[in-house]
Amino acid sequence: MPLAEHLRELRNRLAKALLAIVLVTVVAAFFYNDIINFLTKPILDSVGCGKTFEEIANNLKSADDTNQCARITINGLLAPFTLALQVSLMAGIVFASPVWLYQLWAFVAPGLHQHERKYAYAFVGTGVPLFLGGGYFAYMVLPTTAKVLIEFTPSDVNNFLPLDDLLQLVTRMVVVFGLSFELPLLLIMLNLTGVITGQRMLGWWRAMIIGITVFAAVATPSTDPVSMLALAGPIWILYFGAVAFSLLNDRRRRRRDALGPADDEASELDLTPEDIGAVETVTASRALPEQTSTERVNGYDDVT
Question: What is the pTM of this model?
Answer without folding.
Answer: 0.64
